[in-house]
Amino acid sequence: MNPSVTASPAVLQRKPGLLARFSDLLWRRPTVLLAVLLAPPVLWLGVIYLGSLFALLAQSFFAIDEFTGLVQYEWTLKTYGELLRPVNLDIITRTVTMAACVTVFAAIVAFPIAYFAARYARGRWKAVFYLGVMLPLWSSYLVKVYAWKLILAKEGILTWGFSKIGLMPLLELILAIPVIGGNSLSVSYIGTFLVFLYVWLPFMILPMQAALERVPVSLLEASADQGANPSETLRHVLLPLALPGVVAGSIFTFSLTLGDYIIPQIVGSSRLFIGQAVYAHQGTAGNIPLAAAFTVVPVVIMGFYLWGAKRMGAFDAL
Amino acid sequence: MQSAVLFKAVSRLYGDVRAVDAVDLDVRAGEFFAMLGPSGSGKTTSLRLIAGFELPTAGEIEIFGESAKGVPPYRRNVNTVFQDYALFPHMSVRDNVAYGLMIAGMGKKQRHAKAEETLELVRLPGYGDRAPSALSGGQRQRVALARALVNQPKVLLLDEPLGALDLKLREQMQEELKSLQQSLGITFIFVTHDQGEALSMADRVAVFNQGQVQQVGTPEEIYQRPDTPFVADFVGSSNVLPAELVRELTGVAAPASLRPEAIRIGQGEAHAATVNSLSYTGAVTKLGLQFRQIQLSALVPAGMPVPERGTSVAIGWDRTALHMMGQGK
């Protein structure tokens, strides 16, 4: 026999030790590994997150005693009745309209950027794209919002820019539009809208880019090959296939706008948004049930939104 | 005969890389034309130039006598069967096939009828409601073919359409494509790296290497009388004898090709060689022979005595089997 063969180590190398045996166990029983990995997030999501959400939901079915201002722990729909009063409905309509506008415009603005990144950006340009999209997310949200307040203010750079290029009448025309206009951009709905659009735009671009990147170039070529001009290809092939990304992005922009309470407080008219109403009711007003009921509104709206998106087939391509 | 596609000194450069390098081609109307070559030889780029996905850096392409200069793919009456089939995943098989007709503005009822008709042609009747993802590779291939054929193109371009299929299915599709082409009379331009596929299907073959066309001819011409050592080697792995050796043997100093099956082995032959490898492939056994300074490959049909490795054998061939070539590009 060849001596080099006899001297070689054993084919099956058993290793002693607790750690080695544990890793062997994980290899033999993948379910154990799964359980070890999943237990913390399941506890976190299931107990702490969903648990508090249900606690919140329960709170909304209580009401406060109008004389004492104390929460009465009895099941009632009184708080929801209060939620549906015109002044509160106004808040809801205002917030939902804003969220819808922000979402639609974010999709329109994001599409070309996401498309460029998915189709054409390579290597260094891809890095520039990610940096450009993500960089604003690295700085404090408050800093950005206050910066926008200065940009949009009557003495701000935007007004100055408009006056320098002689477009002051245009700006005044825009500000003269009833409801969405105002004294200056920083105290108008247009201003609030612009800041929302800016702050949430990355959350639309990134999922859109991911969806567009998964569309093979050959599908676009096949569409052209079949006689479709670029706009027909966009409508029949690219948009339907990008829809999951658009929906994912719109979930972010829509729900983030629905819940935000800082931007409308700093930039815009002083009328309340849902987030501000929640903040006010759970804080100074001490009406926790009404605050909870206000919080349920975005949850319900998002539920309907997702249901509608699913029915439209937005998740079919996933 | 009329030209379906004419290349006039067409080049396509990517930076310094000459993907297609001053190619002249003349594909005749109604023929089954194969572009054969290894990967990176420029055959797929040439196909994409015809489809309009790429524009030539230099030179001109004519399709049925008209210059294709600046004409985008969606204004060319040519259709492509893509290598990955490129079926639209969000549409049913029927909508995939009817896509071109929908774009052309045909009514729903009419285009669905035409799609079903074409699905029958590719032997997938009644598959219209399925999703492309529910089909096998061979079925997807047929849908892609139907989608291209439904537009009744003047030229059908096929980019390695059989590459992803297994051997049995591939052979079946080869026959079907060939008979389809003959019954429809459409010009087929077929890109492949499989020389067997090209030889068995095409009326004429263009052999590509490094962006240039090495030879255009019928399968017999390409196989029997290769113009260059590359063609001899690539199309059926012929033995290439260097000019030096050919001069010693015949007195003419030119490289020559010698087909493996033309080499006879047995007593009484003129030359001596040593067997240094054997590989059994079923119908034949391939021999690797050391003959003077070169390696030759030869074939022994099944049932004939196979010499052992390391033994020396006598080999010979007919004078006409030695085919003289140019030096090639």
TrEMBL record, chain A:
Domain ABC transmembrane type-1: 92-306
Annotated InterPro entries: MetI-like (IPR000515), MetI-like_sf (IPR035906)
Keyword field: Cell membrane, Membrane, Transmembrane, Transmembrane helix, Transport
Record localization: Cell membrane
Recorded GO CC terms: plasma membrane
Topological relation to the membrane, as annotated: Multi-pass membrane protein
Any Pfam family matching the protein: BPD_transp_1
GO biological process: transmembrane transport
Spans traversing the lipid bilayer: 31-57, 91-116, 128-151, 157-180, 187-206, 241-263, 284-308
UniProt family annotation: Belongs to the binding-protein-dependent transport system permease family. CysTW subfamily.
Name of the protein in its database record: ABC transporter permease
Higher taxonomy: Bacteria, Pseudomonadati, Pseudomonadota, Alphaproteobacteria, Hyphomicrobiales
From TrEMBL, chain B:
Keywords on record: ATP-binding, Nucleotide-binding, Transport
Pfam family, one: ABC_tran
Cellular component terms per the entry's GO annotation: ATP-binding cassette (ABC) transporter complex
Single Gene Ontology MF annotation: ATP binding
Superkingdom of source: Bacteria
BP GO annotations: quaternary ammonium group transport
InterPro entries assigned: AAA+_ATPase (IPR003593), ABC_SmlMolc_Importer (IPR050093), ABC_transporter-like_ATP-bd (IPR003439), ABC_transporter-like_CS (IPR017871), Mo/tungstate-bd_C_term_dom (IPR008995), P-loop_NTPase (IPR027417), Transp-assoc_OB_typ2 (IPR013611)
Keyword presence, ATP-binding: yes
Cited Gene3D superfamilies: 2.40.50.100, P-loop containing nucleotide triphosphate hydrolases
Domain ABC transporter: residue ranges: 5-235
PROSITE patterns: ABC_TRANSPORTER_1, ABC_TRANSPORTER_2
Presence of keyword Nucleotide-binding: yes
Similarity field: Belongs to the ABC transporter superfamily.
PANTHER family the UniProt entry points to: SPERMIDINE/PUTRESCINE IMPORT ATP-BINDING PROTEIN POTA (PTHR42781), SPERMIDINE_PUTRESCINE IMPORT ATP-BINDING PROTEIN POTA (PTHR42781:SF4)
Protein name listed in UniProt: ABC transporter ATP-binding protein
